[in-house]
Amino acid sequence: MHDSGWKRVVLKLSGEAFAGDDQLGISPDVVRYVAAAISEAVAKGIQVAVVIGGGNMFRGAQLSQGGMERSRADYMGMLGTVINCLALQDFLERLGIETRVQTAINMSQVAEAYIPRRAIRHLEKGRVVIFGAGLGAPFFSTDTAAAQRALEIGAQAVLKGTQVDGVYDSDPRKNTTAVKFDRLDYNEVLTRGLKVMDATAVSLCMDNGLPIVVFDLMGRGNILRAVQGEKIGTIVCP
Ligand code: UDP
């Protein structure tokens, strides 16, 4: 399946994970931990691009339930992801890792514009590229952005670091008999409504045969294992 390991990956980090136990804002401990793990992967010669969510800041759908116009709320969500990107950039650079943030919404004072060919060049030079502002379009998610960016820059997998250690047939926090899947195909994810990524993201991966690995972000050594293509969490693949 992926015994030879990946050479270039997109690591998708949920915004919620960045908040740690606080639910809101950024936990420096979490970001430091994630940055250290990414630096180990880079030291092994693996090209790592990162997409970060914004669930610790704003989610457009939630804001619109409170009465905001959906598109504007989504733009707020996208801007929130950039704050997370800058935090990760800071902790990576303290470790001596060269990074570039590229955003789908132009903000030239803080980040480069998203230019896929330039992103690839950065990766080839051993830099970590952090993609911010999702796809730059409302009604999408950062999961979908991770899948799209992975396809466009020729990554071999999307690695989704979350707060659970894989995909289960029901919520393991509510159901003690929940069963974890080692491997799934895309159709099963979609028809059973399994919580991997949203349907748009899963469909995009399915149409292009892009593997998705779901794993526990904060488990010791997990990021390195996932990035190296070791068996971890749940893999969704053709
Ligand atoms: N968002 C968007 N378009 C995109 C990516 C993100 O509109 O291409 C907005 C959307 O409102 C979303 C928010 O940004 O709720 C934060 O992203 P997401 O919910 O994917 O973050 P995560 O759940 O991974 O923390």
Q: Any guess at the CATH architecture?
A: 3-Layer(aba) Sandwich
User: How big is the Rg?
Assistant: 17 Å
Strand residue percentage: 15-25%
CATH-defined topology: Carbamate kinase
> What is the 3D shape?
globular
Fraction of residues in H or I helices: 25-40%
Q: Would you state the CATH class?
A: Alpha Beta
Largest beta-sheet characterization: 9 strands, mixed
The named CATH superfamily: Acetylglutamate kinase-like
> Which runs of at least 5 residues are low in confidence (pLDDT < 50)?
none
Family: Belongs to the UMP kinase family.
Domain Aspartate/glutamate/uridylate kinase: 7-216
Catalytic activity: UMP + ATP = UDP + ADP
InterPro entries: AceGlu_kinase-like_sf, Asp/Glu/Uridylate_kinase, Uridylate_kinase, Uridylate_kinase_bac
Please provide a written account of the structure.
This protein has 238 residues and is of the alpha/beta class. It has one domain: Acetylglutamate kinase-like (Carbamate kinase), CATH 3.40.1160. The protein contains nine helices and eleven strands. The chain has helices at residues 15-19, 28-43, 60-65, 70-94, 116-124, 142-152, 186-192, 199-208, 222-227, and strands spanning 8-13, 47-52, 99-103, 112-113, 128-132, 157-162, 167-168, 180-181, 183-184, 212-216, 234-236. The chain has a nine-stranded mixed β-sheet with strand order 4-3-5-2-1-6-10-11-9, sandwiched between helices. The chain has a two-stranded antiparallel ribbon with strand order 7-8. α2 (28-43) crosses α4. It is globular, with a radius of gyration of 17 Å. The model has no long low-confidence stretch (mean pLDDT 94). The structure holds uridine-5'-diphosphate (UDP). Uridine-5'-diphosphate (UDP) binds at residues 14-16, 53-55, 59-61, 74, 77-78, 81, 134-135, 137-138, 140-143, 145. Belongs to the UMP kinase family.
